[in-house]
Structure formats: structure tokens, C-alpha cells
Amino acid sequence: MGEEKRNIAVRFFGGAGNYTAVLERLCAFILTENPTEAAVLEWVKSNTRATSDGGIRRRLTFLEGIELLETDTERVRLTQQGLTWLSETDPAVLYDLLSRNVRGFETILEALLDGPKTDAELGESIAAAHPGFGWKDASGPAQHRGWLQSLGYVKRSDGVNSLTDSGRELARRQTSRYPDLEQGEYYAQTALEDAFDTSFGSYIKGINPRTTDEGELSYIIVKAREDGPYNDEIDGARFTYIGEGVPEKGDQQLTGANSALLEQAERSTVPVYFFYQPADSDSLRYEGLVDVVDAEYVRREGRLVYQFTMEHLEIGPAQFEALSESVAGSSEDDEPPLTDDEDDFTEVQRRVRLSAFPKTVKAAYDAQCAICGKSRDSPDGTIDIEAAHIYPKRENGRDTVRNGLALCRLHHWAFDSGWLAVADDYRILVADRPDLEGYEEFAPLENESLTLPTKTEHRPHAKFLAAHRERHGFESP
Q1: What are the structural domains, with CATH classification, of the chain?
Q2: What would the pLDDT profile of 234-271 be if each residue is shown by its tens digit?
Q3: From CA 245, how far away is CA 229, in angstroms rounded?
Q4: Separation between Cα atoms, residue 215 and residue 364, nearest integer Å
Q5: Phi then psi for 151, rounded to 5 degrees?
Q6: Rounded mean pLDDT of the chain?
Q7: Rounded Cα gap, residues 139 and 242, in angstroms
């Protein structure tokens, strides 16, 4: 690679969407024939519509610039990266070469995460991300997009570009604030400090909560040692892990570390990275993300300990983040389905979304009850606000903020039991049952306005509200 990244991704032969098919054949020819440049020129002319030696050389120079080929006065050869790509034909290998050597590829994927865009709009996104970026011609963005099409990351219809499933996954990995470690690999402490951009001090403790600059929990690193004092039983998909506090100090206390894992047992709000350290190694083996499915304060070997039940998630941090963010919904979701399709998510994915639902809903309503507008604190400092599904979870109601309400415990019960409902214009409705105990308490709420989230896309959708009214016998207002 040169001193600076390139601004332009040169078109290749075969047309947008087919670059890699022609490139694979060309690389196979170079590998088997060890050709001169003149022989390569002839091969291209015989196998594509190209006729200009200058145009072909410009493309070969581009392939050399992204470290796929190397040339000298005698021969054209594949680099080691070129050999790797040809042997695997993995789009990720070629994308890595393109994005490391040419500006704008990451920007295009990130821009398309926000929705479909034309080539001109993609060019505007690149220009905004790289001040001073100048295309040599108006087709510059199309040259980037053509490569992404050929790699299977972008699709195009009626002049508009959007991400494929694999493109969306790649874009989310790129924008994820979490490192994507390789499961089963060993990492030294310095390597993990670089990956997580943090310092663990003299050694990595058993439970390591990490927070953002704003003080919010960001992720947790959990380590088990083969020669540790807790005899953690970590075999199998589900295992137990003992909390923080060594035996000589007696009963374990509710430290910040134990508290962080307890919170994850209630709902998975952040990734929990799990590592294992063999007795004869200073490095840690990455075991993947885990879900804290249960927590108990139990007596074990004469003292009280926090015993956590953990289960391997078998998903990466980017997918965890994407599943959590999917609960926030979309302003484009004009007619959402009432329920989640059973085939939309695996059991693990559904569990992550369900765990993210309470946090997302409470945050949308600023931890205030949507019906009474209050936010009560219990004596231990816990906020008495719960996240309610409008169309119930037991009926496979969707885990999306637009199917949620933040409610105090009383009004959560009243909403679920059918005392209260909400009109499409967000007026509170009260069941017409003056003969029942409780009516007088709820009657003053009739026609009061719901306290709504600031963001329109977080407000309850009429489809869920109507389904709730129908379930409890309210007439549509």
C-alpha cells in the first residue's frame, strides 16, 4: 500500500455485480501460468470486452495498489493476500484489502445502515466523512458500489442501493463499539487491553465491569481460572460461576462486580465476555459471550456466595448489539406485525431481544409511568417502573418499543388485567365497571393523556393498542 489511501476504486471487468467472477478467473490464470504483463493483457482482451492496453493497465495498477497483485519487468504474480483470496474466495478477504487501501467503503456500508440510498447520496456520505474528498467524475460512488455489489454486500434496484443480509451484518460489525474476538483463541493481557481500549491494572480480576465515559455499564469481562479458589464448574453449554470474594474473607458481599452480574441475571443489557485461564498459562482463552440466566445467594462450603448460572450465547458482540438495538424499532415500520414469526429468531436471539426490551422501554419513557407520570423509588433505591407489553408476550407479542409502555406496578397490573386501555390518540380509557372495587380509583384517569416518549418512533403503535383494546372488550373510540 502507498503512503496514502486511494480516493477512487477503479471499475473492473464484467460490469457491476460481476467484478469478482472475472477477477477470480484472472487470478487463477496468473497463478497457473506465471504470465508476463503482455500475456495478461492478451488474456483480458480474450476474456472480456476490453480493448485498450491503457485501460487494462490502469486496472492492474489498481489491483497492485490494493495488494492483490505485484508486478515487475518480467512477471505478474499474486501476493500472499491474493493467494489467500483465490484459495478461499471469501468476500471478507477482498473487502479487507479494498477498505484498507481505498477510502469510503466503510462509509458506504454505514450510510446504508440508515436506509437505501442512491449513488449520489452515497457520494455525499463519503464527502461528509472525508472532508476535502473529491471525485474525479460523478461516477466515483458507483465504482465503490460496484465492488460492494460484486462482493454480495449491496444490492441495487431502480437506481437505489441497499444492504444485503451479509452486508448488514458486516456494517454492524464495523460500527460496533465492541471488539470481535475469535472464540477459542488465546489472548495476552496486553492484547485484550488493546482490543477493549482499557487497563486492567496488574492483572485481570474474575469479574470486570466496564463503564462508558458517562458512567453507564458498557460490558463485563468474566474470567475463570483452572487453579482458582472457587472451583467453577464451567463444562457444558450451561455452567455455574461463583462471584467475587475469596474464602478467607467469609461471606461474599454485594460488590460492584457481583452487582453487575446480578443485573445481567435480571435482563441482559450488555455483552458478557467469558475467558478461561489454564493453570500453566498467563494468556486467557476466549470462550465467547455468555448469558447470566440465574443468580442465587447460597451457602457453599460454610459461607454465603453469589452463584451465577451462565449459558453460552453462540453469537458475537455485533449480533448481540444489533438484536438489542432492533427492539428500538424504526420510524419506517408503518404497519408492524402484531407478533414475531417463530422463524425470525433463534431461541438465543429471542432471549437477547426480550432481555433488552425492559431497558429500552424504560429509557424511552425516562423511567416514568406513562399513565400517572410518576417515578417512585423503593427504600433500596430501585425505581418502581416496569416495562409492559401492550400486546402480551404470552401471545408472542413483539419485543419492540412500539409494543411497550413504561408503567408503575399498580398501573402495569391495571393495564394487563383490563382496567385500563389506550385510544389511538393516546387517551387513557377506563373499563366501565362501576360495580367493581377499584373503579373509583381508576375512573379519574378517563380521557387523560398518556405521557409519551420524546421520539415519535418510540411511541405506541395503533396496531398494538387496538389489539389490547379488543382483548379486553373496549370499544374502539
Answers
A1: 19-174 (1.10.10.10), 186-319 (2.30.280.10), 327-471 (no CATH)
A2: 667 889 999 999 888 999 999 999 999 998 887 778 89
A3: 10
A4: 19
A5: -80, -5
A6: 88
A7: 59
Measured in residues, the chain has a length of 477
Structure-derived torsion over alpha carbons of residues 375, 378, 382, 387, reported in degrees to the nearest 10: -50
CA 474 centroid distance within chain: 39
Amino acid in the structure at residue 358? P
Whole-number Å distance between alpha carbons of 372 and 384: 13
Q: How far is CA 4 from the centre of its chain?
A: 31
DSSP, residue by residue, 101-113: HBTTHHHHHHHHH
CA contacts within 13 A on the Cβ side of 147: 29
Q: Taking Cα atoms as reference points, which of 110, 15, 115, 45 lies closest to residue 330?
A: 115
**What's this model's pTM, rounded to 2 decimal places?**
0.62
C-alpha grid cell for residue 371? 399513565
Strands 272-277 and 217-225 come out as parallel
Q: Strands 404-407, 428-430: parallel, antiparallel or unpaired by DSSP? A: unpaired
- E-strand stretches of 90-194: 154-157, 160-163, 186-187
Q: In which residue are the cell numbers 407479542 written?
A: 397
Residue entry with cell 431502480: 158
